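Board notes (copied after class):
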Amino acid sequence: MVEISKIILVMFLWAVCFPLIVAGFAYAPHLTFAALRAVVAGAALVGVGLVLGRRWPRGRRVWGILALVGLGATTLGYLGMFMASEFVSPGIATVIANTQPLMAAVLAGLVLREQLGPKAKVGMALGFAGIVVIALPQFATAQGGTYAVGIAYILLAAVGITVSNVLIRKIAGEVDALMAMGAQLLIGGVPLAIGAFLFEDPQSVIWSPQFLLILAGISLFGSSLAYWLWSEILRTTELNRANAFSFLVPIFGLAMGAAFFGERLGWFEIVGIGLTVAGIALASFAKPVNTPASTPERPKREAQS
């Protein structure tokens, strides 16, 4: 029950991120805001870890994986989320971004050797159909081009998060969650900071109390707390089982979009969202079909932890 509560809390924290991203655009450019989020979140985790005497990750292999996690979850993930928020509404963005469990199920089959069963395959088909249905009305309008750009950014973020989730699960038992997640946030923030200095004016940030509150909320809660909890969850919980709760993120996101952004959804969006949520739930809750090769590896990973 405690584990489930942690997972639900993580999903809620991630859902809050999209509205906070949109609110923060009034005070900071996109890439600058994204880089600040990564640096503040990473520094907070590393700082807490150092105070508690936690150990830095060790080994070239582990640091290589953490670098890939940082590039996926933080660089691509934040780039996609922050840039997409200019082109699509927070509620729709949250729904499409959280198709990543469908992609994670495929990647988990290749890396973690958790094969998809019949229910999971049906879920993937439903999820893809939902995305198509959601996108149809927007592509038919004059703004279809910009909407397509937004969808591309969201899918970029989803791919980055998918790869990072599989890699986090792979090393979860080998590293301290605080230090590892702090390190990947700082690593992933470097390309964002470089992009901010090349394409934006970081000095244009308006350091108002409102922006500081937004930055603190999205960094300390939407990133630091969420990633630390997620890494701890994946230490003891299979990726597909934990990802099953990701269908709560679009539900939280749509509720906040309606409450704070006045979003109005048409029938295409409603049907598409229903298909996507059903597909994510079906694919995530389906039990993985483990291959014979995967059986001896599980005790080996646990022994290393």
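Comment from the instructor: Confidence is low (pLDDT under 50) at residues 291-305. The chain has one domain: 2-304.
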